Amino acid sequence: MDYASRTSAVEKVVNDMRKRDSLLTLRGWRDEVYTIAASYNSPPLFAMERAATSAFGVRVYGAHVNGYVVDENDNYFLWIGQRSKTKQTFPGMYDNLAAGGIGNGLSPTETMRKECEEEAGIPENLLKNLKSVGAVSYCYEDENGVHWEGEFIYDLKLPKSFIPKAADNEMERFQLLSISKVKELVIADNFKPNCALITLDFLMRHGFITPDQEPDYFFILENMHKSGL
Amino acid sequence: MDYASRTSAVEKVVNDMRKRDSLLTLRGWRDEVYTIAASYNSPPLFAMERAATSAFGVRVYGAHVNGYVVDENDNYFLWIGQRSKTKQTFPGMYDNLAAGGIGNGLSPTETMRKECEEEAGIPENLLKNLKSVGAVSYCYEDENGVHWEGEFIYDLKLPKSFIPKAADNEMERFQLLSISKVKELVIADNFKPNCALITLDFLMRHGFITPDQEPDYFFILENMHKSGL
After folding, report:
1. Contact state of A41 with B211 under an 8 Å Cβ cutoff
2. Between A and B, how many residue pairs show a Cβ–Cβ distance under 8 A?
3. Which pLDDT does position B42 carry in this prediction?
4. Cβ A133–B205 below 8 Å, yes or no?
5. What is the pLDDT at residue A43?
6. Domain A64-138+161-224: what homologous superfamily?
């Protein structure tokens, strides 16, 4: 069986389950296919509607960017997005500057560049500062199934003069926030959970959360990098 | 039982085991006590000779610093130490700029500052750039017992003009090496293993190893942040 036949077989199964309304997650049909592979850089096995991936527990991958500004006094600020209120998933919640799923034939870095342009209107010349800085891994179960995810993290230092533009209506607005304000938002309950994790990783990597002040330093880092449930 | 009585009881047991030569690890007596606690920031329970900790499998903590220089063309260089040939553990192997165990009543950051001064002769005024950037957790077993360790990581950006000095004879020399040379050393077999891990973390956080080029990106990060065996 080749890629096309496997994809078509999977499509039949998933469409049938949707018709029978047998899986809650399929009510949130995304009309977006993910390429499924043994790993993010292995040859694709087949494509599958994004909403169905949690029913099968396959691992999915994404890329997120922390957009930040450093002022003349070495104070850091982070660009925090707020998701559109009409977005299907996590409407109105806080988000990173840009993020997107991997699985359309683009590498993690290519995906990240594309999302920076599409979601935040970042021009090509500012993307020369885009830097791969790590990843988080997590797995959780909810009423939609098993979400096993790996998210690549990028940092992008931006000039003070640049203002992101919500180019594709995914985001309602962007705010440039101080580190203390960002810490408050991460702790509060209206941050998209995996985006809060990406932001937490930024705060730890840049010395804004230290082992001297945080008793659960190892616990946090170990739980940010877990394979499986 | 208080701290002093517990420490004295443990001391008796460990001294007795040493006299009977019943544990291989005690042949490598360090004459250095570690404070044992439920966590690095919990109240100390008792003190124990460092060489005995692996016999009991207690978790021990350390702090390591990546000392680096960025030249005018934005090229990065890392200060890599080479351990003294007379050092008891890992003689002659490559090391970070400075590192030390936690457990003498100092916080992770205080320990790091002290080691920077003692092991690499870094003056106080350069330590203002010292930044907490994460940690690695790992656990392995060898002929000496179980080594369950948590290492805090610091980055220290240094001016090109500063040359580290092996102040306390722990290091034989320091070399300022390009990223490509550092990558070669990390892969080769003469790097102290946990120091190679700290260096690998630096390379990943600073964009010198990316998910586009490294197929085991998640595997590496997950295994760098593991609790227990």
Report:
1. yes
2. 93
3. 84
4. yes
5. 87
6. Nucleoside Triphosphate Pyrophosphohydrolase (3.90.79.10)
